[in-house]
Amino acid sequence: MSNIQSSCAYCGVGCGISVTPSSFNDIGFELEGDRTHPANKGQLCAKGERLLESLVQPNSLRYPKYKSGKSVAWPEAITTIADTFKQTIAQYGPDSVAFYLSGQLLTEDYYVANKLAKGFIGTANVDTNSRLCMSSAVSAHMRAYGEDVVAGCYDDFEQAQVIVLVGSNAAWTHPVLFQRMIKARQRYGTKIVVIDPAKTATASQADLHLQIAPGTDTLLFNGLLNFIAKNEALNQPYIDAHTENFTQTLAHVASQATDVETLAQALLVPIAQLQDFYQLFISHAKVMTASCQGVNQSIAGTDTSNAIINCHLALGQVGKEGCGFFSLTGQPNAMGGREVGGLATQLACHMGFSEPERQVLGDFWQSEVIATDKGLTAVELFDAMADGTIKAVWIMGTNPVVSLPNTAKITAALETCPFVVVSEITQDSATAQLADVLLPAQGWSEKCGTVTNSERVISRQRGFIQAKGTAKADWWALAEVAKAMGFEQSFSFKNSAAVFKEFAQLSKLVKQSFPGKQFDLSGLADLTDEQYDELLPTQWPAANHGAIGGNKQRLFADGIFATASSKAQFIETTADCQIAPLPAGQVRLNSGRSRDQWHTMTRTGHIAALRASIPEPVIAVHPSTLAQLKLIEDDLVTFAAPNLSITNFAVARVVADDSQAPDLGFMSMHWSEQFSLGKGVNTPLDSQFDPYSKQPAFKCQPVSLTKVAVTLQGIVFGLHDPHMQGLNWNVQQTLTTGSCYHIGFENTDAAFAYQSTVHALKWTISLASQQIIHVHCNISNGLLVSLKLLSRTKVAVSLEAMNLLIGQTVDVALMRQLHQLIKAGNSPLICACTGVTQANIEYAMLQKLDNAVFSKRALASDFTSATAINTDITQADFDKALDETQTELGCGRQCGSCHSEVGQCANDIWHIALAEITTELSEQERKSAQEEVA
After folding, report:
1. CA of 60: how far to CAs of 9, 446, 800, 915, in Å?
2. 589 near 595, Cβ under 8 Å?
3. Strands, DSSP E only, in 494-631?
4. Which of 57, 228, 886, 923 pairs with 611 at a CA distance of 20 to 30 A?
């Protein structure tokens, strides 16, 4: 087998990868970034670099199964699904069935699902988890441009003079693209502005950070539009020729945003900062504004996106090099799903539900039952299961029990629904465990098809290993069920190439029927199987065969849009930022990705290197807010919404984090009961959503924090009983040599009784910090089989080193090693790519500081005073030391997503050490002066 070019399975950047057979590891392959791919040019993030490690799933699903646990053959499973769907439709109508899809699916999977549901069953109750991440941007595109189109491309970030990131922690969520922005700044002096209530890893690297009040994004950009007009920066010829509704929109925003001073007060930012931002925006011809979940996952995500687009339209900055609005997509194929009609609010190829559009689709598919109107969106769809309207659902490649808000309601909805089918790669997910029929799907590395990234580039995802068990492609499973339902002639696809070809042919017909639409795959409509197999990354529109391999296209450059009038629409947006004061004991909860994990961790939670940086669920809260809540760092807390009645609470460990704004709390979206005794972050959230996009408003919902009473807590290595009575904290963590569990107990007796045997050794160790560690070793045949460390406060030890003791002979040498490891403590992981810890960076920086001080003392005889230290050890010395440290250790020099953490760690230890040196010299000077006087 030669090199396989494929694409990454994670975020919407859509990085290309190259896989090569290898005999140097157990996996049998090596992986690196594809240097020829236009999205990443060979770069990968920490998750992408470890894609091969995701292939060994702890509990892979290999055969179809019933809820009883019985494995069945595919023909029986297909017959069961088809018969149940037919009976349900016959009794309750087509809208009694639904499909819930995923941006993890390939375009071919999405296409067949939508064809079956909207074309042959006749229901538009087909939605996707993409509703949770970018549907507000979709709605904004359609309102402004007439079509869901990202007009620019990644190259624009390298051509821009100013990049504005709104509600985007791109350093963590889109690290490869963010590194392209950073390199553009290094080369061309690009200014990077970050708009975010929290000082994220991205904000810490910005030239300007506007730490606005939560929920004020729309007001900020309405104010910018007013500022553009007042400062005579409007591109009036462009507005007159290519847009509509400008006068009304300007009057509308002028009534909300009068002057910069008033705006600054409402936004809670300094006037000078706001003026700097507005001036940057209007004084440069090339400004890129990119948004992500901080915008999309709000109650006003669509309006905020349109407020941003309004500003670019006012300057004529659409479809031109280095400028415009850009929606950063969260998943690898959320864009592909939108192209085939994966959302309940659209039909295939960017069509709506008008009679002419339905007619085109009906003629092409040879069907008379095309869905007549929009279907139920994600939240509505599960509400309809709960109230009995939907009787059967097929969920593919997603875990809604964890990812949707108010997870107790989602669980109840699936338990209520009479028939639930789930296609998955693992049987461990919370949703999979509720399936009546569980189907084994091919995962990344096994399946073949296409994905479309955020800049509209279609890439091949190619399989390179044999599927586990009888796992099948999702498009195949859907087609087989469709044939069993009586639609054999329309679903007889021989391979994924045939599915894609039909999709491209439909695109060609739609483009001919509606020439104003931008989406066009006409040039791919006649691909042979061989040409499909060899397809290069290709950006749409691809009107002819010559477009294959092309990218860097910008749309709407001619000022002709996909609206009825062919003009872009200014949209009047409402800046309702009246946030009610928080009652005592509450914070506004934000959620999002952590740097090294993905979705609900079903694919990444078992990878030791990706679990090491944040091993437990944590909620980050500003220190001042912690003080008000009478909490301290490392406390365990439950949190719940004031308006929801739930009995199972989310639980997390408190982290004091001054990067969070006061009254805000942040917890990652990844945690669930699969890895933790506590529920995930979405448990306490209600299901409110944006009125236009119906995207759930995950951001800034109020929750109450309540301290969990823990008498003893710690870590257990080796044998562990997760169902032990008395546990109120239990988090599994994968290590390179096995697993450990972070545990906590509500009473001391339960803690000491846990896994206690007559063959156990028990003693205590007192650390220099006054912390008491209770050590409990279980021994079998002279070997250590279980090690439990407990204390009243959090236990910090080297997990990997401790786990290596399991299975060793218990003797004096092991006891000595155990004591040394307990006293040595632990250092947090900073760089997942290289395994560099905080201690590694601190040690290297201290060496560099010592060298700098020594060198300057050697060169200057008076370099002995505190004043000289502060004067002569400069920022340049720090920058040089940091550069040398990163070069030696490699941290922050791989994917770059940890760059800000590396810098912060280095900065902290440098200034602490510098202050200590200064204090020491000052004391020496004082004593010398006293001696002289004496």
Report:
1. 17, 13, 25, 54
2. no
3. 538-539, 568-569, 586-592, 618-621
4. 886
